[in-house]
Amino acid sequence: HFHPAILNPVPGVQVLRAWDGWHHPSCVFFQRLTTGRVRVLDAVRGDNMGVAQMIPLLIRPLIAARYAGVTSWRDVGDESMRAGDQSNPAESAARAVEELLQTRFEGMPNPWELRLEAMRTIITQPMPDAEPMLMVSKSADLLNDALAGGWHYPVNTAGVVGRLPVKNDESHVGDAFAAGCQALVGVRLEQVIPTYSAKSRAMSYNGR
Which strands, in side-by-side order, build the sheet including 134-136? Predict the structure, then answer.
């Protein structure tokens, strides 16, 4: 799943930017190739800032350096990013993405089971050549850290695994990745079997 080299964008193929907002905003860059293989090219997190600050500081320079050949973009994220800021209800993380990047933001429905099923599909489904569907570039090391166990379910002293993942430094990139997988797979609620027992969930989302 994790490529030892930096994967470059394929010119002419749409890039999906998947976002997580609030005080540690994150953005994961995906490409789905014509073969069906999914590549994660970059993962970015801004600490102690908002999306409006992150885009000029971190996202635009990255686009200029690595994505000059890309002309088609899609932007998705949790639908809660449309919620206005408490100090200014007219402003939201989604609106910042739209205005600063001249794009249209798509809010993803947020039941956890939808995203979990989408990630399972992307991470575990093999291609016809038996190679994994997902390939993560070395430049997306923040996602590597999250999927290697940094983003995980809580476990209490009795060994009971919680239903939702913990919120920590890695969870912001993880949440962005989950929204991106959901957008790529298009999982609908009626497709998800609502029987996710705590015992059957992995401690992290790397398929182990």
Answer: 105-108, 73-78, 15-20, 26-32, 38-45, 134-136
